[in-house]
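Researcher: Before we compare anything, I want clean individual predictions. No alignment, no superposition, just each chain on its own. First chain goes here; please echo the sequence and then give the structure tokens.
Model: Echoing the first chain and its structure:
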Amino acid sequence: RSETDGVNAPGPNVTVSGAQEYGMPNALPRAAEPDEHRLQFTDAFSHTQGKHVWKVGGEANLVHEVMINLFQGGGLYSYAPGSPVSAFQNWSQDIFQVTPTSGTTGYHYTSFTQVYDPITHVGKDDFWMKEPAFFFEDTWKLRPNLTVNLGARYDLQITPDPTHPNTTSALATYYTQKLKTPADRIVPRIGIAWTPTNKTVVRAGYGIFAALTQGSTYYAMRVENGVYQTNYNFNCPSNNCAAVAGAPEFPNVLFTPPGPPLSAAFSGAATSKVTPGGSALVSSFHGLDPNFVPPIAHEAQLAVEQQVPGKMTLSLGYVGSRALHLPTFIDSNIAPATGTRTYNIYSGSGTQTGAITLPFYTARITTADASINTGISGVSSWYNSMVFSVKRPFSNGLEMLLNYTWSKATDFGQVGGAFGTFYGSDYPIDPYNIKGEHGLSDLNQSQRFVGSVVYAPPFFHNLDNHVARYIADGWSFAGITTDASGFPITPFMSANAGGGIDGGLTGGTMSSSSGLGTPGRAPFVGRNSIKGPDFNNLDFRIARTFPIHEKINFQVLGEAFNLLNHPNILSEATTGYFYIKPGATADGVTCPAATGTFNGCIAPEVAPFTSTPVGTPTGTSGVLYTERQLQFSAKLFF
């Protein structure tokens, strides 16, 4: 297939079977995301008195955030689920208008989303964050071999409240009106260094660390609140949006998008135009719980370092952390469950292996609003690790550093990286039971070994033969290897159950960007319950230095990244199960007819019905690690 998705393409964006094919990328135009200016003033004062070294200081950070990014402002059409072939056929009927008399031309898509900004029209926000901080520290040398470090720090993050909260309902006002500034973040730290012998050092420490919330999280609540920016969604049953009131005809959009003028995607394709009508629709938006606060972390460590023969030191230590008030995002406009629904569970061979009963959500708390993607500070995490290190400083031509870490990280569904910044979620099965998501962290890596060696043979420095010394001396070799356990995988569903809010299995799962329901993970399989592939990488460098003059040297280097060309799997398929409606047959499984609270069947995605079952490698290249690469260079030192 040919993909023409580009920076300067006009809206809307079109995805077919999950792949962005053409149109305006969802995050563009990105005039200022972010445009951040920081004024920072800092100073510290120290004083030594007897066995004490006192230090006191502070800083003032003034952060000016200007963000201009109407995410999904160009509109987004999606053709899925179903097979890639059926999704492509549905798109073809719409883009070429091949069935003009059917009454459904232009309505074969699965969903449409467009964000509109009636105030700035480009998704602009402009605000200041004020971040003062103060600290006090006392380094106290109790004895010649015992030092104690005591301190405390105070942090504050002040962000202005939204100027135009959403007042469509009491619930909307509650989640879009107030940003909380915790003023009690006085956090202590203590550290101890003890040298019982001249070859042994014991170090211990504990502290509480206060974090800050990214400006983009506050930005989303301040302006993507249904007033500055309104999110209009259409989720269409049976790939037919003709029956959904207000749904636009493909490839039209509800509002004039930012960026290039609307046009036909290519010769022969239908031309996009603005067809107003979405203003009367119920919209979804972002919000923050009034008690939403930046996270804090309790961290502790204990290490013993021992010098051993061979000019080496051995270190064994424990590192632990418990984080509180981590963010997660749920649909807060879901009324308590009206009852339960039961789903039959099938094996890959089509045999029923059990059943699961889940709470089922069918109503909104307020019908004036759709989903309210709300940030809450309700997630905790735990990290425990053992670290073993061997160090040898450079001596006699050899330097060595070996590190092995065993660890375990768990949480209640914290989203790693940038996804958490932009209201991502791990899709809780039950939004009223976040603790039910307890499992391995997305970033859990149980074992990791990193070893580096530098060797410069010293044997040829003093050769009497000048020619022999020039040939044999000046070589150096270096290598670093990384061997690590794989990150865990969560098996997700590929289709929704009917009858719930937004069509989710319980109604509690949703997409962060559109507010539409998503199936989430398979409810009977634990979050992050599948181990991903391990990681192995070896980099190597060889260098030769040629002395030219007393202070002039010429060096030639050869470097190999991923020397063994090991195929590291950096991404895997995560769709593990699919939903079957009552009375339907799919992939060799016939689901019984609906009776009572029975609401369908769940079966695994297995061959030959799918070529990408959960865990199937989908990528072996990344920003840092890819296939073997060789690099040659030369340097002149003078």
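Researcher: Okay. Second chain, same rules.
Model: Second chain and its structure:
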Amino acid sequence: MTRESKWWLKHYPPGVAPEIDLNQYTSLPQMAEEAFEKFGDRAAYTCMDKTLTFSDVDLLSQAFGAWLQAKGLKRGDRVALMMPNVLQYPVAILAVLRAGFVVVNVNPLYTPRELEHQLNDSGSIAIVILENFAVTLEKVIAKTQVKHVIIAAVGDLLGFPKGMIANYVVRKVKKAVPSFSLPGAIKFGDALSEGRSLPLSKPQLGPEDIAFLQYTGGTTGVSKGAVLVHSNIFGNVLVSEAWLKPGMEDTTKGPPPDPVVMVCALPMYHIFCLVSCMWLALKVGGHSILIPNPRDADAMVKALAKHKFNVLPAVNTLFNSLVNHEGFRALDFANLRVSNGGGMAVQRAVAENWLALTRCPIVEGYGLTETSSGATCNEIMNTNYSGDVGMPMPSTEISIRNDAGDEVAFGEPGEICIRGPQVMRGYWQRPEATAEVMTPDGFFKSGDIGVMLENGHVKIVDRKKDMILVSGFNVYPNEIEDVVASCPGVMECAVIGVPDENSGEAVKLFVVKKDPALTIEAVKAHCREHLTGYKNPKAIVFRDALPKSNVGKILRRELRDADKAGK
């Protein structure tokens, strides 16, 4: 780096250690087993009013891990997990890792084509799948290397009679389990029963052993598996724990919570929730409230009403949905210590509405699948909306570079490059793709455009591929969306670039109304007031909904594809 190394540390918040000690652990199972011994009888996970203690999770994951070993899986074999946030998920993750295998997290909403690609690319030879999605696997399993299929049902770990009732409702009332045929598949409960009488052989794992193949969203090309080793994950857990410390120990809000209650509304198969909820909660003896479907806001609010929750990680769209939900607005937020924002830009209007309601600011951070989630974050105690993603977290470096690889001046846009313990070891079996994103000095090139501010904070401008070029001027969708989101009557919005014979590209805006009386002219007037001429949308379209990813991130790519197709 051309500047003094880690110069931003002089701006660091009090109480945050600048560096973490990676030598505290050698593997994730070591960290997990420490938690099992220390927090045995504490609640670890609650879903649908059923709670598993740390001891329960210890025994269940040992049993399932032993069963997998008995099926002949060898150290380093890949096991795919295709489930929403249900109790089986953390049990399966811990079982796979404790047995010496590699977790391949799969989005349960994948199409057969997407599932086939991920199973084959990863070389997965076993899969644990919720029965609701088994029909997708049926369509592709013959074209994969998968030899072992374990079918989970919603009620598996809910106990009797609740589990039986839950399965009946899901299968017969909601009809949420399409018929499928997977000969030779075994039920999750049967695997546990068999595994309880089997010994778990615990391999000696090291920090550089692969823990997860975490697949990128594939929004800019084929989905690639980021190779995350054990030290990537426990390193980021230690980084996050150090950063959150001031907020969790703040005595102005009363005694520090113990145990910490975390809301796991984002899917655990996504890197944000995987680290910030599952592993961080495990490390600190926290109680995770699993929300299987955050899009069912009524069910989520009903679940939250039963707990004094302290930490709520979410994306902008989820914060926006909750703050506009009458039931959520009636909850007690006295115990809420940290509202983590990530995955997409947090808009000013959403942040201000959230703070007014909960008195707990959204603390926006930044990270990617390739960085095991977090790389930067705003100060936990800061109540002012900054519009940036904070400063580099402990043991992490950020460098803003131009296309030639040179560091740019303060305030000048460039590609955000990241170096630290959380950065992946590369893309699975894709050395050329890895070489494209890793610099000779060990920085990961994010593909995001940002600026470094003189206070050490990083401001995201936009994705390289989302940038719109209007008459030679760079236009960043995030900026326009942030302005439009503050327009009265707007619920959600998204911006794309479309071809224009005069300016090369033009701005097209999609809006979901909060107020049915909102007009296009009102939106145009708001934009004219807050945006310079070339940034103003040339076309505005009202829609009932916007396409979103599994974590609620608005998919501009799908809007572009639909626009090209004239839809």
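Researcher: What stands out in the second chain?
Model: The first strand starts at residue 43 and ends at 47. Additionally, The radius of gyration is 23 Å.
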